[in-house]
Amino acid sequence: MEIGLLFLVDSLAKTDITIQGQNDGQLMSKQERAEQEIQKRDIPTELINSVMQKPVNIAVAKKYLEYIFSENMTRNITSKETFSDTRIHFEHMIDNV
User: DSSP code of 83?
Assistant: First the structure.
């Protein structure tokens, strides 16, 4: 679980510029606008790769967290009340991604 959370934090921490799309074509159609935003903010142009990858990274992290907090993973945890509270918090978080 720790690695998945670190992956999400690392991915999101590079830049706050975000694009959205459901497939490569939709993402690529927004690349020029993302490049313009990078230039406007005067930040390193190398961050375009991070911006273009961010939607995929978020989707992967969301699926990872859904799996970690699924019934299959939680049934072996002894402190279900404490874990349940945490699970509800993370379910709310991933639903809002």
Answer: H
Dmax over Cα atoms in the chain, in whole Å? Answer: 52
Q: Is 7 exposed, middle or buried (0-12, 13-18, 19+ CB in 10 A)?
A: middle
In order along its 97 residues, the chain shows pLDDT tens digits of 566 677 777 777 778 888 988 888 999 999 999 999 999 999 999 999 989 988 888 887 788 778 777 765 555 554 444 555 555 555 555 555 5
* Spatial separation of the C-alpha atoms in residues 28 and 30, rounded to whole Å: 5
Closest CA to 8 of 73, 70, 67, 56: 56
pTM above 0.85, yes or no: no
CA distances from 73 to 1, 10, 13, 54, 67 (A): 11, 24, 28, 26, 7
